[in-house]
Design a protein that fits this description.
With about 325 residues, the protein is an alpha/beta fold. The protein is built from 13 helices and 10 strands. The radius of gyration is 21 Å and the shape is elongated.
Length: about 325
């Protein structure tokens, strides 16, 4: 059973996000001077870096399909104030250095006025100095991030995703409420994952001071989880919380089943993905995970009809259910 719970912390509604991008584009008078002089309405150029290849492509391909479908629908309806959206996407393979080079291409060559619906915490952080500080180009709806991005507020950075720290805290409370007394947090070793994993213990102990919480770090993009699961078995936890990417979580679940682990297993948003089910198959049975998203406050056609709409607009790919609105709208889920 993969359950998703709706919650939202920082919000920028669909209209506000796109209006902000449109205003930014309008302020860039030199973007298409030839077109402006001829009276033609130039497109609003926005861009994104997304992992479309590599180990975590499962996080990039479905969201890109969802956003492509949304922008296609938006343009068919006339765009924003008569201006079409030109969304340029480049594959960063989830690599920070590639992301910096892509950022330079998007801003310097493609002349985008905003980065919208990009993906990656470390990847975005690597590009912040050039994009936000040097170029003064806003970043809207970056998938990933940490609390340090927004406290204190960072000029030009607009997030719509519930922080991973908050999601880990929700998972911790869930595990304790289910009766866990000894929790083991299995997490990837990059700092972004470590920071999220650290949120489990204080919340778990707030719910029940007697709970024990330990952490087990795993090298990022590990594929062989045999030794990891062996260590988990030796620890004998009541519950395991996975702070991993979807492919890593699937690898853990498959190996856990092979080794006969029966402990309750929980995951945060990146684990609560269609790709986890597709990769882990039957081994995902019983997994509990949260996907904290904003419930659209007003009727939202793409979200209301995400099932029948997406095959007609993007037949090659099935968008992830948590990203049916792409980067320009609040996300919704077919599970609640």
């Amino acid at each position: 059973m993969l359950r998703r719970t709706s919650r939202f912390r920082r919000t920028a509604g669909a209209v506000a996000v796109l209006a902000a991008v449109a205003l930014t584009a309008g302020a860039c008078a030199g973007q298409d001077s030839a077109e402006a002089g001829s009276g033609k309405q130039s497109a609003i150029r926005i861009g994104a870096w997304i992992p479309l290849t590599g180990a975590v492509a499962a996080y990039g391909v479905p969201p890109k399909a969802g956003a492509d479908a949304y922008f296609k629908m938006l343009n068919a309806q006339g765009g924003i104030n008569g201006r079409k959206i030109d969304w340029t996407v480049k594959d960063n393979a989830f690599d920070p250095q590639q992301t910096v080079q892509i950022a330079r291409q998007l801003i310097g060559q493609d002349k985008v006025v905003a980065i919208v619906n990009a993906n990656g915490t470390a990847q975005a952080e690597a590009a912040f100095p050039f994009v936000l500080t040097q170029s003064k180009v806003p970043i809207v709806d970056e998938q990933g991030g940490s609390e340090s991005w927004y406290e204190p507020p960072r000029p030009g950075l607009f997030g719509t995703q519930t922080l991973y720290e908050d999601q880990a805290a929700a998972v911790a409370a869930w595990a304790v409420q289910d009766g866990a007394k000894k929790i083991l947090v299995v997490h990837s070793d990059p700092a972004a994952f470590v920071n999220v994993a650290k949120q489990v213990e204080p919340v778990a102990k707030k719910v029940d001071p007697s709970v024990e919480v330990d952490r087990l770090a795993v090298k990022f993009q590990t594929t062989d989880y045999t030794p990891v699961v062996s260590k988990v078995k030796a620890e004998k936890p009541d519950a395991v919380i996975l702070i991993l990417t979807s492919p890593e979580a699937a690898a853990y679940l498959k190996e856990a089943r092979l080794q006969g682990l029966t402990q309750a297993t929980y995951g945060y948003a990146p684990v609560a993905a269609e790709s986890t089910i597709a990769l882990a198959k039957d081994a995902a049975e019983g997994l509990k995970a949260v996907q904290l998203v904003k419930v659209p406050p007003t009727p939202n056609p793409p979200c209301r009809s995400s099932g029948p709409r997406w095959p007609s607009t993007s037949p090659a790919r099935t968008p992830d259910s948590s990203r049916c609105g792409g980067g320009a709208t609040p996300r919704c889920s077919r599970r609640s």
